[in-house]
Write a structure and sequence with these properties.
single chain, DNA polymerase, domain 1, 3 domains, three-stranded antiparallel sheet, 14 helices, elongated
C-alpha cells in the first residue's frame, strides 16, 4: 500500500519566511516529495486538517487547488497500482508529476561545466558566481525548477537590491542566467514549456549611458603630460591608438603583435577576441605614429607591440590564464586612466572602453556613414551602432536649445 500526505517543509524556509508545500508519497517505506509550487508561512498551514488557514488571504482558492491536486494524485496512484503491483515510490511520483523533478542547481552547475570550453572563461566564471549568489539567497541547494516561482524572483530581486546593493543591471544579469538555465532545461525536455516565471516578472532596465570624450576633452587628454615611469604613458598611448584605430577593445590592443600591423597599407588585421572574427581596419596617421614609437631594431613579428601586460605563450592557449591576466591588466589600466580623468576634471571616471565610444562619436560627428562605423567597430548588428547616432542627435538638440532659442 502507498500513502499520500501534504507536507509543509519547514526546513526549507526562504528569506521571506515561507516554506514550500509538497505532496509526500510513501511506498514500501520509500518516500518521494512532489512540489505543488506553493509557499506558505508556517502559521498559515494547519498540519492536522491539511489545509491552509483562514489567516491567508487566498485560503479558499488555495484549499480548492490543493484538494484537486490530492484527488488527482490519489487517482493516479490507484490506477497505477491496479496495473502494476510492484510500483515503487519513484514510479508513483513520476506518474503523478508526469516526469521526475529536476534540481535547478545541480542542472545549472553541470550545464556550466559542459559549456566551459565553448564559453569565454570570464562568462563561465560569471555564470557560476551568479548561480552561487542565488544559492546563498535560497539557503540550500535542494531546489527544483518547479520551486522557482514569480514570488521567488521578486524576493530575490528585492534581496539583491536591498541587502546586496546591486543595481538593476546587475540584478537583470543574475535573472538572465537563471532564465537561460530554464530555457536549456526546456530544450532538453526536463521541465514543461509553461514552467517559465520570467514571463510574469521583470526588473526595470536602467538607461545605458555611454560616456565619451568630446573634441575638447580628447585634445586635452592627448596634451596631458604623464610620467614615463611605470606604465602610465603606455596606457595613454593605447587609449589614443584605439580612438584612431576603429575603437579596438582593450583585450585586442594588449595582445596586438607586429605581425598584425601592415606598415605599407597602414592596416591592422587580427582575430577579434570577443567575436572570433577576423577583422581588418585601416588606421589613422596618429595611430601609425604611436606604433612607430614602439618599434625597435631587434623586434620580431611575434613580439607584442604595447608592453603593458606580461603576455606569455600560455596566454594564447589557456583561457583561464588569459582571463586572469587580462583582468589584472584592466584593473591597472583603470587606475592610471582614472587619475588622468581626475586631472582633466572629467564628469565621469575614465576607463579604456571610453576610447571605443570616443571613436564612434568622433567618426559620426565627422560625417562617416553609420554602416561604416559599424563595420569598423566589428558590430554584429547595426542596431548596436545606432546608440551612438542617438548620442549625436541628442548633442545636436542641445546645441539648438542653447544657441538658437
Amino acid at each position: 500500500m502507498s500513502s499520500i500526505k501534504l507536507i509543509l517543509r519547514n526546513n526549507k524556509i526562504d528569506k521571506a519566511g515561507e516554506a514550500p508545500l509538497y505532496l509526500r508519497v510513501i511506498k514500501d517505506r520509500k518516500t518521494k516529495f512532489i512540489s505543488l509550487s506553493l509557499k506558505l508561512k508556517p502559521n498559515e498551514w494547519d498540519e492536522d486538517k491539511q489545509k491552509v488557514k483562514k489567516n491567508h488571504s487566498n485560503s479558499a482558492r488555495l484549499n480548492a487547488y490543493i484538494s484537486q491536486k490530492v484527488a488527482d494524485a490519489k487517482g493516479e496512484i490507484a490506477d497505477l497500482e491496479r496495473r502494476n503491483l510492484s510500483t515503487s515510490a519513484r514510479k508513483l511520483k513520476e506518474a503523478i508529476k508526469g516526469k521526475p523533478l529536476t534540481n535547478f542547481f545541480k542542472y545549472s552547475y553541470n550545464r556550466c561545466e559542459k559549456q566551459k570550453d565553448t564559453l569565454a572563461f570570464s562568462t563561465y566564471r560569471a555564470y557560476k558566481t551568479y548561480l552561487k549568489k542565488f544559492e546563498n539567497f535560497v539557503g540550500h541547494s535542494d531546489l527544483m525548477f518547479e520551486d522557482i516561482t514569480v514570488t521567488t524572483l521578486k524576493d530575490y530581486a528585492s534581496y539583491c537590491s536591498s541587502k546586496l546593493g546591486n543595481s538593476n543591471t546587475t540584478i537583470n544579469f543574475s535573472l538572465k542566467i537563471m532564465n537561460i538555465m530554464f530555457k536549456e532545461a526546456q530544450r532538453e525536455d526536463l521541465i514543461p514549456i509553461d514552467l517559465f516565471p520570467f514571463n510574469k516578472f521583470a526588473v526595470k532596465k536602467e538607461k545605458s549611458k555611454r560616456c565619451y570624450l568630446n573634441a575638447e576633452q580628447f585634445q586635452s587628454f592627448m596634451d596631458l603630460e604623464v610620467s614615463n615611469q611605470y606604465k602610465a604613458q603606455i596606457i595613454k598611448d593605447m587609449f589614443i591608438f584605439s580612438v584612431f584605430a576603429g575603437g579596438l577593445r582593450f583585450g585586442d590592443v594588449i595582445e596586438l603583435k607586429w605581425k598584425n600591423y601592415d606598415k605599407n597599407a597602414g592596416r591592422i588585421t587580427k582575430i577579434i577576441r570577443k567575436t572570433g572574427r577576423q577583422h581588418s581596419v585601416k588606421i589613422g596617421q596618429k595611430a601609425i605614429d604611436i606604433l612607430e614609437n614602439y618599434r625597435h631594431k631587434d623586434q620580431k613579428q611575434e613580439d607584442i607591440i604595447f608592453p603593458f601586460a606580461n603576455i606569455d605563450d600560455v596566454y594564447f592557449t589557456d583561457k583561464e590564464h588569459r582571463s586572469l591576466l587580462t583582468g589584472r591588466a584592466i584593473a591597472l589600466s583603470y587606475l592610471y586612466l582614472k587619475k588622468m580623468g581626475k586631472k582633466l576634471e572629467l564628469p565621469f571616471s575614465l576607463s579604456f572602453h571610453i576610447s571605443r565610444h570616443t571613436f564612434a562619436t568622433r567618426a559620426l560627428n565627422n560625417g562617416m556613414r553609420i554602416e561604416h562605423v559599424s563595420k569598423l567597430m566589428d558590430h554584429s548588428d547595426i542596431g548596436i551602432t545606432q546608440v551612438y547616432a542617438k548620442i549625436i542627435s541628442s548633442e545636436l538638440d542641445n546645441a539648438v536649445d542653447k544657441y538658437i532659442n
